[in-house]
Write a structure and sequence with these properties.
By secondary structure, the protein is α/β, with parallel strands linked by helices. It folds into two domains: 201 residues, Urocanase like domains (Rossmann fold); 199 residues, Urocanase fold (3-Layer(aba) Sandwich), CATH 3.40.1770.10. The protein has 19 helices and 17 strands. The longest helix has 24 residues. Bound molecules: nicotinamide-adenine-dinucleotide (NAD).
Amino acid sequence: MLQSTIQSPIGKELSCKNWETECLLRLFLNSLDPRVAENSEELIVYGGRGKAARNKKAMEAIIRELKNLDNDHTLLIQSGKPVATFRTFPFSPRVLSSTAMVVPKWANDEDFSILEKKGLTMYGQATAASWAYIGVQGVLQATFETMNEIANRYFQSTLKGKLVLTSGLGGMGSAQPLSVTMNGGVCIVVEVDESKIDKRLVNNYCDVKVHTLEEALVLAEEAMELERPLAIALCGNAADVYCEMVKKGITPHIVTDQTAVHDMLNGYIPSGLTLDQAAFLRNKKPEKYIKMAEETLIAHVKSMCELQNRGAIVFDYGNNIRGQAFKAGFEKAFSFPGFISEYLRPLYCEGRGPCRWIALSGNPGDIYKLDEAILANFGSDERICRWIKFVQEKIYFYGLPARTCWLNYHERSQIGELINNMVASGELSAPVAITRDHSEGSTMAAPFRETEGMPDGSDIIADWPILTGLLNASAGATMVSIQHGGGVGIGNSIHTGMTAVADGSLDALKKLKNLLTIDPGLNIIRHADAGYIKANNMIRELGLKKPL
Ligand code: NAD
């Protein structure tokens, strides 16, 4: 029943009182649309059990509140449940949201799941609770940039003829095989749930499905020999396959993993269990389940370390696999690095980060018109043009059509202005939402991911995302959310999301100019404060104000 009803309105007609609330209603429903969410029936958007609303009653109340919200009121969401509406100002955010926040002493899985079972909180991942999820595409460029950086650093700027072994074809993990083939390489991606593989074959993220490592290796060797990109989905348990690789003496060039292991109980399947058996054990004997999952994980991470010893480039892809293996008792789990400190941080130091825009009209033509305008206006930027051409060719839209693009300090506000102008002139058929991932330099504090290995030791300082959120709210964002536990799990991160709407008005333009300067600006300032020379140079180059 619910499956068929969750779908965003499209077109020009408003179902709310203004475009700001309409934008949030459409994004909220889009993130729960069964074509977009991993498990719409359970309100799970992605990333293990990352939800957009606490429960169905809360979901319905959010829809009702948004439809009735005036343009001088602000709705408060407490961990996926609407709790209050207050009169504020037209310039204020229409929605402020705080998700999964607990007093730090109790910020651990055990206490959190007790609170969750009591119905007091919800796990919101990152873009799930901030209603900015747009499917796999949202993380595609970060994954692409990581693979690209490895190709530049180690393999003459291409992954042609190179093999990547990874796992997990969920909401985020599915970006991996396509990112590898976009860089010319061959990918074997292990996924235990065959239905996820079938979904990714339809959406173009994988090319072929196999059931044994032998079959995968035959296909991979042939493709490597011919230097032909190929994404092979192997149905199986990641730990089993990685151990088998070690036994066979096969060393892929690159090894990583994106199962939802940050959540051992709900996101990681122990070896030897079918999905049904896992669901049964999880329900009936969670302690036994965790014990089995830990044993599996230790074998999994040990084999990653062994493949590293044999010459593979190995890294943690943002799911805290090292931290979980360490917690389970494998002391050498931190032998390989995290992807952000190793490959993406130099981009953060330049203020470059993930921006996304979503056509609230539901009309793919709006996104294609924006693609053309961006190619025309940023023709000299090889990085942006290459990306837009790639995604135009590879990405199918499902749910509201959207684009992501990593943009620097100037580009972000320039593109915001371009979008708003095109809405104002009527070139686009309706307003456009502009939002971003939580994964940036100042927007997430996560010592096993975004802030791992900061030169000044500020890895666990969580003031930056709070300051970013407060400033976004002061500068005209339509929605600001502050969250805990995204990506790497409860106790391991604090982060913030921001959404604005380009409705073609002068007010929207002013807000966008501020907001789209603040995010990359604070990114640079946070890294300069930590001692990065590149970020300090950017401060001087851009004339940013940093009192100390
Ligand atoms: P998801 O829950 O949608 O998907 C996880 C997938 O892993 C599922 O399809 C599941 O069947 C599969 N899986 C679980 N155990 C397995 C096993 N033992 N062997 C093989 N497959 C197994 O999660 P997601 O949204 O894809 O996120 C994956 C992880 O990445 C999460 O930990 C998430 O927090 C993290 N993450 C990474 C980034 C990034 O930029 N790299 C960003 C956000 C989140």
